[in-house]
Amino acid sequence: MSCANLAWSVSKLGYQDRPFPDAISSASINLLREFTQQNLANPVWSCAKLLVWNVPLFNAISAESLPKLSAGQPQNLANMAWALAKLGYHHNPLFAAISA
User: How many structural domains comprise the chain?
Assistant: First the structure.
């Protein structure tokens, strides 16, 4: 998904203009059903790299990730778990499912 890739690219560049990551987050929420597990991990990873806190995005991604865990690659799950933990965001059902 282009929003997930854009989020990843912005964080790799270290782009700190706050309205831009917020706009990507808002657009991503509406597309999450179409995202693969990697696409779900990229925006969270981007937020962690830029230290952007967006609870609605984290809640939506965590909920959307649960039914997709079995289709995900271990690296994508690790990236998501790392990013959420770095941000101090805890979604107990997601962390329990990842660690199972």
Answer: 1
